[in-house]
């Protein structure tokens, strides 16, 4: 019965088109047995890919990866390594992890073989790539399998094969024969007939990318036109007015932006000038939103399903923006030399632009408001370093697809310089497991959990049933303080009887500290267990019953109830756990209640407070007194 309720509360947010396309996909997946072969021979001999130059040297790790591939040894998702004894079994799933099999069939590793060849000049690497492609065609070209012929997988494989054929035909005496062209045309036709309208989101944009690049290479104008149509319409649907991607995950914002960049380069270099300029016009806003959300240490905040290395490092993508728009602010977090990623994209011309830019070394202290995403970011420069606090005041994502959402409503992230004082727990796995459930749960984030339930019902690997809706209430900024208030209704939906609103206010008294005020109010007739959690990437010591002080820092955190600390694991990279620290405040409540967290950045005597009652908190900042009215989310001098 519980599963039925979860299914109902997931599906009710889908419209007729979503249902129709999902049912169509599920039916075809079950009845389809063969793949129709397309016997076209056309392709563009003068095709110019989005890779401009391969004249690069690999490091030892790159060579090791290529040597492993030669031995049929594949490692995906950082740790999952498997070696095939004889031929590769393309349907194999040795770890019962669908994403592993997807990676096997993406063929991203062809780029590792190319890189090894350009370094070692050993044709063995190129021959291995062709051997793998030949083997895939022999085993699978006309046999349907839902993993191998998943449209997202087909799109990635099509692009990777095109890049590979393009390279070896230009740098060796290899010629693309009918077998390879038939396979490429078959994949392209399959993509034309099966774009992922049942999923949309980043998957459909990948399909559009595959259609454009495949269409340009194979001289299929219908495919190019259909791909451009998808990229246009999905940009309008998926990129919000604040220029952030609607799944509200930093990693998928990076992925979608990278897709548009590479499509732009292919169109430009193959003389689709008008279409290229149209795509370029969509890029800068997305680059600006990515630049604004980057933390002072140059890393992305791990919002929803995000990892530091997927799909590429955000800094590399910002470096692309610097070269495309000749804008030095985007290389603030770059090294002194151009990255390998961008040298491959732009070659000597890109290197010249990069070397001509003078990096901006300052810190933009202006607060950032991504209103549609719900991300409010406080920035300042203090004695400890560049301060960054992100407050998540937004919804989970697009209601019809919350595959990459976490139950993280009203989560906060705090970093100063390179130190991660309050950190998101990240994303460990996409595999259906207790760990997947945990990392998506409210308990894994810097916010409030009631009765050990998440504020949104995350379930399976990529589903959400009842989901919290957030409301932005207050944003005010002046010379002395910034105040941001929001609330969500998740606990009016997921609790058995009572209906509790979680209201959170963040007040930043500039240079001195924060107050984080959690107000739980509503229909409360029963007793509830409440947990307030904070995760930190920094070590700390317990100072008093209700406070900690961070090592090698003046920063302190104090709560209005006793706290406990423990060692925990977070995950900044797929499949890899990292030890961190956790602060937990637990209390049973049977009426409206307030939790206050004080974060001291300098002299603790400059910031103090007194909870007068459930409606009023008196705050002392230096010599100034304020009255904070809890129910009104407002503060006035007192």
Outline the structure in words.
The chain has 638 residues and is an alpha+beta fold. Among the domains are: 53-174, no CATH class; 368-604, Beta-galactosidase, Chain A, domain 5. It is built from 16 helices and 25 strands. Strands 11-12-13-14-21-18-17-16 form an eight-stranded antiparallel sheet, with no helix packed on it. It has a five-stranded antiparallel sheet with strand order 3-4-5-6-7, covered by helices on one side. A hairpin with a 5-residue loop joins β17 and β18.
Overview in brief:
With 638 residues, this protein is of the alpha+beta class.
Primary descriptors:
638 residues, alpha+beta, Beta-galactosidase, Chain A, domain 5, 25 strands
What is the residue-averaged pLDDT?
95
- CATH architectural label of the domain at 368-604: Distorted Sandwich
Instruction: Sum up the overall morphology in one term.
Output: globular
Largest sheet: 8 strands, antiparallel
Question: What Rg, in angstroms, do the CA atoms define?
Answer: 26 Å
Class by alpha and beta content: alpha+beta
Assembly state here?
single chain
Widest sheet, order of strands: 11-12-13-14-21-18-17-16
Bin the strand percentage. Answer: 15-25%
Task: Look at the structure and give the CATH class of the domain at 368-604.
Answer: Mainly Beta
The low-confidence runs, each spanning 5 or more residues with pLDDT under 50, are none
CATH topology of the domain at 368-604, what is it called?
A: Beta-galactosidase, Chain A, domain 5
How far from one another are the termini?
54 Å
Helix content, binned percent: 25-40%
Strands, count: 25
Number of helices: 16
Pfam families: Hepar_II_III_C, Hepar_II_III_N
Domain Heparin-sulfate lyase N-terminal: 46-333
Main location: periplasm
Organism: Evansella cellulosilytica (strain ATCC 21833 / DSM 2522 / FERM P-1141 / JCM 9156 / N-4)
């Amino acid at each position: 019965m519980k599963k039925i309720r979860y299914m109902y509360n997931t599906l009710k947010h889908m419209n007729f088109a979503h249902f129709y396309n999902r049912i169509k996909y599920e039916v075809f997946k079950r009845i389809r047995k063969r793949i129709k072969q397309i016997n076209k021979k056309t392709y563009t001999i003068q095709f110019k890919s989005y890779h401009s130059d391969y004249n690069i040297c690999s490091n030892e790790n790159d060579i090791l990866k290529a040597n492993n591939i030669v031995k049929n040894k594949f490692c995906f998702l950082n740790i999952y390594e498997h070696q095939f004894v004889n031929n590769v079994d393309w349907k194999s799933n040795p770890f019962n992890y669908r994403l592993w099999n997807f990676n096997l069939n993406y063929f991203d590793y062809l780029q590792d073989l190319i890189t090894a060849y350009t370094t070692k000049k050993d044709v063995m690497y190129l021959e291995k790539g062709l051997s793998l492609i030949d083997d895939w065609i022999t085993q699978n070209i006309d046999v349907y399998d839902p993993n191998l012929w998943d449209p997202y997988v087909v799109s990635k494989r099509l692009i990777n094969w095109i890049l590979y054929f393009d390279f070896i035909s230009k740098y060796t005496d290899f010629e693309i024969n009918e077998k390879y062209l038939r396979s490429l045309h078959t994949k392209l036709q399959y993509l034309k007939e099966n774009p992922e309208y049942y999923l949309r989101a980043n998957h459909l944009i990948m399909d559009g990318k595959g259609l454009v690049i495949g269409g340009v290479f194979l001289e299929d104008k219908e495919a190019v036109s259909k791909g451009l149509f998808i990229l246009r319409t999905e940009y309008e649907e998926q990129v919000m007015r604040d220029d952030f991607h609607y799944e509200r995950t930093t990693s998928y914002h990076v992925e979608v932006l990278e897709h548009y960049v590479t499509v732009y380069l292919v169109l430009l270099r193959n003389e689709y000038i008008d279409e290229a300029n149209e795509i370029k016009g969509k890029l800068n806003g997305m680059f600006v939103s990515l630049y604004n959300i980057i933390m002072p240490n140059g890393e992305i905040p791990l919002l929803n399903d995000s990892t530091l290395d997927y799909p590429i490092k955000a800094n590399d993508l910002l470096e692309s923006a610097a070269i495309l728009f000749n804008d030095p602010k985007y290389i603030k977090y770059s090294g002194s030399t151009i990255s390998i990623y961008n040298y491959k994209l732009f070659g000597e011309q890109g290197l010249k632009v990069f070397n001509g830019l003078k990096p901006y070394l300052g810190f933009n202290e202006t607060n950032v408001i991504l209103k549609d995403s719900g991300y409010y970011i406080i920035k300042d420069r203090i004695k400890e370093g560049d301060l960054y606090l992100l407050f998540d005041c937004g919804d989970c994502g697009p209601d019809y697809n919350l595959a990459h959402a976490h139950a993280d409503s009203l989560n906060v992230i705090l970093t100063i310089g390179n130190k991660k004082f309050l950190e998101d727990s990240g994303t460990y796995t996409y595999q259906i497991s207790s760990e997947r459930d945990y990392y998506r749960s409210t308990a894994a984030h810097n916010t409030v959990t009631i009765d050990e339930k998440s504020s949104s019902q995350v379930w399976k690997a990529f589903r959400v049933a009842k989901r919290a809706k957030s409301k932005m209430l207050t944003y005010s900024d002046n010379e002395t303080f910034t105040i941001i208030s929001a609330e969500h209704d998740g606990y009016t939906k997921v609790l058995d009887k009572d209906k509790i609103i979680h209201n959170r206010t963040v007040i930043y008294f500039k240079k001195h500290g924060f107050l984080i005020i959690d107000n739980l109010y509503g229909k409360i007739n029963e007793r509830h267990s409440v947990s307030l959690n904070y995760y930190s990437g920094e070590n700390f010591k317990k100072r008093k019953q209700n406070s900690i002080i961070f090592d090698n820092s003046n920063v302190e955190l104090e709560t209005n109830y006793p706290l406990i600390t423990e060692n925990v694991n977070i995950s900044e990279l797929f499949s890899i756990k990292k030890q961190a620290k956790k602060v937990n405040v637990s209390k049973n409540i049977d009426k409206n209640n307030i939790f206050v967290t004080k974060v001291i950045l300098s002299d603790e005597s400059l910031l103090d407070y007194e909870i007068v009652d459930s409606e009023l908190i008196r705050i002392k900042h230096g010599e100034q007194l304020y009255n904070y009215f809890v129910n009104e989310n407002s503060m006035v001098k007192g």
